[in-house]
């Protein structure tokens, strides 16, 4: 049996594809995302919703406040003695993820309420830059 290519060789100019369909990616309307703004609009609307345009927002870097934070569980592993100064180590904020089992006196710029509760419950203290020591936590 003769292959399709050999069948059309020399006899047909377009191999049964019409004039433009056999050129490049002509029959499928372009390669990839070609034509999503023209002839493939319905495909874009159905399968690519929200493809164009801006999504969300970015604040100017001068307005952003990015904290270098650390969790209570990591502090317990790092602290060699009974006190640790996180500000000198480059941390800005103490967060309350994890648990703490021993009394540690922590100095840091900021601390979340949950972190202070856990440290005080273990017998330690949290000293922040803007406030005094939190040795006794008042539950509301």
Question: How would you portray this structure in words?
Answer:
The protein has 140 residues and is of the alpha/beta class. It folds into two domains: 57 residues, Molecule: Ribosomal Protein L15, Chain: K, domain 1 (Irregular); 69 residues, Ribosomal Protein L15, Chain: K, domain 2. It has four helices and seven strands; from the N terminus they run H-H-E-H-E-E-E-E-H-E-E. The strands form two sheets. A four-stranded mixed sheet has the order 2-4-6-7, with helices on one face. A three-stranded parallel sheet has the order 1-3-5. It starts with a helix and ends in a 6-residue tail after the last strand.
**CATH C-level label of the largest domain:** Alpha Beta
Mean pLDDT: 87
Uncertain parts:
none
Provide the succession of SSEs.
HHEHEEEEHEE
Query: What is the strand tally?
Result: 7
Question: What is the beta-strand fraction?
Answer: 15-25%
Quaternary assembly: single chain
**Rg (CA only):** 33 Å
Distance between the termini: 89 Å
Strand order of the largest sheet: 2-4-6-7
Dominant shape: rod-shaped
Number of domains: 2
| Biggest beta sheet attributes | 4 strands, mixed
| Count of DSSP H/I helices | 4
Please name the CATH architecture of the largest domain: Ribosomal Protein L15, Chain: K, domain 2
Please give the share of residues in helix. 10-25%
Instruction: Label the structural class.
Output: alpha/beta
- CATH fold call of the largest domain: Ribosomal Protein L15, Chain: K, domain 2
């Amino acid at each position: 049996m003769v292959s399709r290519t050999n069948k059309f060789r020399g006899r047909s100019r377009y191999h049964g594809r019409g004039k433009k369909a056999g050129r490049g990616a002509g029959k499928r309307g372009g390669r990839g995302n070609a034509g999503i703004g023209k002839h493939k609009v319905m495909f874009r609307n159905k399968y690519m919703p929200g493809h164009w345009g801006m999504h969300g927002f970015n604040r100017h870097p001068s307005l952003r406040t990015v904290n270098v934070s650390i969790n209570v569980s990591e502090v317990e592993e790092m602290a060699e003695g009974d006190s640790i100064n996180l500000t000198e180590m480059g941390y800005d904020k103490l967060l309350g993820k994890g648990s703490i089992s021993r009394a540690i006196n922590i100095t840091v710029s900021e601390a979340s309420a949950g972190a202070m509760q856990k440290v005080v419950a273990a017998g330690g203290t949290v000293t922040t830059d803007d406030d005094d020591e939190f040795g006794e936590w008042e539950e509301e």
